[in-house]
Amino acid sequence: MTASDKADEQRFLEEYNPKDYLSPLVTVDVAIFTLIEGRLHVLLVKRANHPERGRWALPGGFIDAGQDTTLSEAAARKLEEKTGVTAPYLEQVYTVGDNTRDPRGWSVTVLYMALMAHAPTAAFVDSVADTRWWPLADAMGQDLAFDHRQLLDAARQRLSNKTAYTVLPVHTLDAPFTLTQLQQAFEEVLGAALEKKSFRRRILSADILDEVGEAPPPGGRGRPAALFRAKAGLGEHAFVRVVGEGK
């Protein structure tokens, strides 16, 4: 680009006004999962304001161009603002938009999936009347606001699909945990039983856990179980084979 072109572009940008064009509403929504008593749960918020007042929804909200430098920042901010929780794992699932999904106008939302160990939650802003961890099956049966039933289903499918070749369920457990608890987390997400020996070989050979002690055996009988925590900075860690393959 020549100096003249740069000068022309600078003048164009100085005169450009984005308000000259109609823009869609742009939001982020977060499907955040955890395990409670071995069952997969998702966090929902009850809307306190119109539109869709009184209906349950995924936590989320509008992107703030003044403070959000990335979409992930916006998702994490809205999650904490509305529910008080922060997630150690957050990933973008997909983007959807049209002129019918929100009665306020043409709307685009960026869906995120998040994972965390169970923690209490509460409504922290006036736009939220209540927050609750729902068993996933119960949440899927709710008449959720907007198109959030479809968004939740997409996030659920992403979690299940990626669990087959990653270690994502580790982020739903409080540390320390046993290998049995980790296997049960995988089985809950996948909806299928896994062979114990091959699962343990798969996890231990990946060198993704730190052993941090032992749990006393129930009733004081038997061998103590080793306790683990995920290595610092562990994200999703992809395996070459899907779980259950090549037993």
UniProtKB/TrEMBL annotation:
Source domain of life: Bacteria
Pfam families xref list: NUDIX, WHD_NrtR
Residue span, Nudix hydrolase domain: 25-156
A GO molecular function held by the record: hydrolase activity
Keywords: Hydrolase
Hydrolase is among the record's keywords: yes
InterPro entries assigned to the protein according to its UniProt record, in alphabetical order: Nudix_hydrolase (IPR020476), NUDIX_hydrolase-like_dom_sf (IPR015797), NUDIX_hydrolase_dom (IPR000086), WH-like_DNA-bd_sf (IPR036388), WH_DNA-bd_sf (IPR036390), WHD_NrtR (IPR054105)
PROSITE patterns to which the protein is assigned, alphabetical: NUDIX (PS51462)
Entry coiled-coil feature ranges: none
SUPFAM superfamilies in the cross-refs: Nudix, Winged helix' DNA-binding domain
Phosphoprotein listed as a keyword: no
Name assigned to this protein: ADP-ribose pyrophosphatase YjhB, NUDIX family
Source organism: Marinobacter zhejiangensis
